[in-house]
Amino acid sequence: MTRVATRWCGQSIERVEDGALLTGRGRFIDDLGIRSGTLHAAILRSSHAHAKIRTIDAAAARKAQGVAAVITGADVRAVSASLVAGVRAPIECWPIAVDRVRYVGEPVAVVLAASRYLAEDALELVNVGYEPLPAIVDPLAALDSKHPALHEGLGSNIASERSFRYGDPEHAFARAAHRVSVTIRYPRNSCTPIETYGLVAEYDASEDTYDVLANFMGPFSLHAVMARALKVPGNRLRLRTPPDSGGSFGVKQGIFPYIVLMGVAARIAGRPVKWIEDRLEHLAASVSATNRCTTLEAAVDGDGRVRALAWDQLEDVGAHIRAPEPATLYRMHGNLTGAYDIRHVSVRNRVVLTNKTPTGLNRGFGGPQMYYALERLMQRVAVELKLDPIDVIRKNLVPSNAFPYRTATGATLDSGDYAKALETALSQGGFAELRERQQSARAQGRIYGIGLTAAVEPSVSNMGYITTVLTPEERRKTGPKNGAQATATVSLDPLGGVSVHAASVPQGQGHRTVLAQIVADALGLKPSDIRVVADFDTAKDAWSIASGNYSSRFAAAVGGAAHLAAEKMKAKLARTAASQLNVAAQDIEFTGGRARARGNPDNAIPFSRLAAASHWSPGLVAEENQALRETVFWSPPELTPPTEKDEINSSLCHGFIFDFCGVEIDRVTGAVRIDKYVTMHDCGRVLHPGMVAGQITGGFAQALGAALYEEYAYSPDGAFLSGTFADYLLPTTTEVPTPLILHIETPSPYTPLGAKGVGEGNCMSTPVCLANAVADALGLASVDLPMTPAKLAAHIHGAEKSARRPV
Amino acid sequence: MKPVRFDYIRAGTLAEAHAGLTSGGDDARIIAGGQSLVPMLSMRMARPTLLIDIMHLPELTKIEIEDDAIRVGAGVRQAVLLAWPELAERQPLLAAALPWVGHAQTRSRGTVCGSVAHADPSAEIPLTLLALKGTVELSSQGTRRRVAAEEFFTGLMSTARQDDEMIEAAEFPCRVAGHGYAFHEFARRHGDFAIVACAAIARHDGVRLAIGGVSDYPVARDFPDIDGDALDDALDRLACDLDARDDLHATADYRRALVRRLGRATITEARRCRA
Q1: What is the reported pTM?
Q2: What residues contact A445, with CB distance under 8 A and at least 6 apart?
Q3: Are B197 and B127 a contacting pair, CB within 8 Å?
Q4: In angstroms, what CA-CA distances link A252 with A47, A784, B193?
């Protein structure tokens, strides 16, 4: 790939997004005007984890003030099709309960009324006759065939089971000096964006066309799922996004069933329908990350060198296996050896259904669950073999000269220098001082621990990795799937202005700013000369199935596509300039708002005049040099489908993270105080340091929440216990310390700008780093999240001694 | 999250507020800062048909010293009391407890008496009022009475207030020279309702300890001037008497452990502060 000399990329320029946001002028879904006659939807949701719906009596609700319609599963079923499920099985997946509810919060009826207030009033008048059924909450219980299947078409509650074998794990285990294992129960949690789901849906009966404005984030592969469910060709589902979105972190992928549901509602009512999800709905029934039970065993040499891993993963996707699940389980498949050089791996993956909210995308997406097991295991190797945990990590890292490195399970680690990153972090982060600090704290009788984590952060997902859930034979039948198509468009207007559009669907990250930097660099302009539009319309904009805002793909894939589009535009402009300036096209350089002859800066033409030429005097510009609008679709050739041996390059780029931390645990309360946290990142070329720091800091805060505070908890009967922000605790600014962020840069050879993703890494590395520190502090072999004070205090206080203890 | 339809009166006089309560009965509610009531309305957990806003009555906005007590009117916001220059001198326990009430943002809206009326089992202000043996002033159309804090809190978010009554003021007894005061609390995050909150007042001949967050309402107990094993035993008895329960945030065991340990730390600090 060619590299350009850059000026703006690498600088933390002011975000163009912030002026509007900081002055309250953002344009979020709920701020936008609606057509007169638009109805407001409220959803009646199941209070049962599992029940048959015997009757729904909506007569009183239909007569209530302002109510236009009440819609139930039967109505939806009549005009739409089941959503395509995530596995090949004869099961249905509707956006509203049909005959049966399978989780608390599942939609049962939709009331459409003149206002949300009136719609909620009428909800109270809908009477549902439930026949409760036993609920399955524990994923281990879901394996038991004595429990009835939640989806009869599956025959059991195991939606998918596959085993994999790479290298010769049996041999490695047979000759291993030691076997070390961990068993993990990773809880459910979510990144809870500040803005909830929202949409406005319309249906035009004369053209049989749906038009939906929604704060959906992609991936737009789900556009196909939605169009099929609505029983229209893709060109009759127009999906648009608002200019601003208040955060997503993966979660706003999960609005897609509601796009179908409200599209159908608009069709039935014959009027536009607006729905803004409230916080209670969001917590109970948007999407959750998966909870997972993992047993991971290592075959280890006497010196701590890990030779083989045996994974047994049991993934709980909740009540429906909604597309793209079970992607959470397979996203990390190429990376099951983490940052380590381990050649022998066996894997058993099982996916079960339980009476909980269906799962979906969530920042980290499979990484937190996987690294929790792998990095707890690495600590246990050190403890059980009485080795220094740093040395265990050092000994097993992928060697610096091995890149690009093909992992046992098929990922190509594109670039990196893990040893250098680790040693740099230890010295710049003050690891030796931290160990001294621990010693002196312990000498004073304080409870202090140190945790470590090494992780590879994948970004730019291969759209084909999910097909690893299919057998090679099944894949041959369905045809290969792969790639990560990114799109960007650069246009010139008649005044020579440059506009950029990319199908990246930002949710607050600052894509518009970075795209302006990238295009300004290519065209020798200032970022303020470039106008970037980020709202998105499937009917007008260039897009493909991989479009959207997920798998940390923006900097690496979308930014790269914008760079290529700008370069394509520049090449055309250079040829026109060459003819006007009487020099060869390769001698034209773009700088300071002008195109000029290299070595003769006075022989120049203003950029705006050159850029406007194809509008005003197309006859004077050769056809092949017409420069009006350039769109680039870019997909990296490295993202190939799974091989016959189930090897999968699940992501294009692989950043590296090395974290360490010191924590102190209060003897009285059991509360964890983070004394120091250091996070080293190699995310390739950094385009905007401020935004990279923002991504790391934000991911760290959410990870700290997962480690210490957050859990979507259910009671044994399936009741949802985390229904408000008083129950589901997010860390606030007082709980989140400032991590020390360090960097080294090894550019990716596979992306146009050398950038890699950085958005999800700390969600993967930080929960287990904190857990390793707590385990070190308390001498625990096993610790599960969230590490609440009550849980930890039980280890410190021991069994309650009081003779008066009530029973 | 939209409330049920309700009427709203902005009371221009106390009499108007009383009249609204009389006519509305248990369907009427006073709204002051709204920091607890509004979320309950939005979640339809409270469904009054009439809200009476008392935040525009100047007679309710005063902080006064009366009979050796700080009399805090029903319109006084928590932030205003916290910023009152005499607070730490007049009642150090209240000054120590108030920063634990919610967050700066909620304190700038929430009122002192609103917290007393709401009577959340984990709330700091009811706990402090009980620890200090304070008094609640209630009034209704034609009646007026004073109820001791120990009689006021009667159950989980329930009080001795009658449907037609409103809290006009809460009275927090002033510091007694020679007594020591201390407050400790543990919550999972800063600003959350307490898992366990402790307020202690050390006299020369004994100590009074009040515990919030464990029972349905704050509980106070007076101990003689004991220490060592005798105090441990007394704290254990108190911990086991409180009917601690498991919930999402903490186990009953854990709450009892905190009553013993945090209770002891609070008493020790109060004694240290005893002049």
Answers
A1: 0.97
A2: none
A3: yes
A4: 24, 27, 31
